[in-house]
Amino acid sequence: MEKKPFVTKEQLDKIVEKYPTPFHLYDEKGIRQTARDLYKAFSWNEGFKEYFAVKATPTPAILKILQEEGCGTDCSSLTELMMSDRCGFADGNSIMFSSNETPAEEFILAKKLGAIINLDDITHIDFLKDSIGYIPKRISCRFNPGGKFAIANTIMDNPGDAKYGFTKEQLIDGFKKLQKLGAKTF
Q1: What is the DSSP letter of 164?
Q2: Could you tell me the pTM of the whole model?
Q3: How many C-beta atoms lie closer than 10 Å to residue 53's C-beta?
Q4: At what angle do helices 60-68 and 28-41 cross, to 10 degrees?
Q5: What's the CA gap between 159 and 142, in Å, rounded?
Q6: How far is residue 93's CA from residue 5's CA, in Å, rounded to a whole number?
Q7: What is the pLDDT of residue 113?
Q8: CB neighbours of residue 101 within 10 Å
């Protein structure tokens, strides 16, 4: 597949004459097409929704484009939750909140915005319950599969060494506990 820039050298020269550097230049058409291609690729999965990691590009204009294409946001901080809210994502299905070291105020705002809360480890269950007063009916848990991922003879990653996510055993125990505390959908 041949990659072609979405602007020519001449177009860039004109842009630089008008706007001082540094700046970021995004390809709206390319962003929209990528989102559409992603949804097409997962069309077999009814109800599929993409949640774009706000930390990757915390730019309201980009978030609005992705929102128009049906994407939600994946937030990991109070600031990202507030940005998603200001951009109009707080509708109960458009924010995924995935965080590691989570202060209570972040869980409280996530709940207020109707975010799907994605717990990072088993200790977050009690902390979430204490922070917001209950366990939401719909909740998610981050899974750490452990092991090593390799291509050919090169190790790409070692999730087993990561401090994030539930192990398989913790996930089973965590789901049982969450269910007893009111969770219905995982």
Answers
A1: -
A2: 0.85
A3: 14
A4: 40
A5: 12
A6: 34
A7: 97
A8: 6
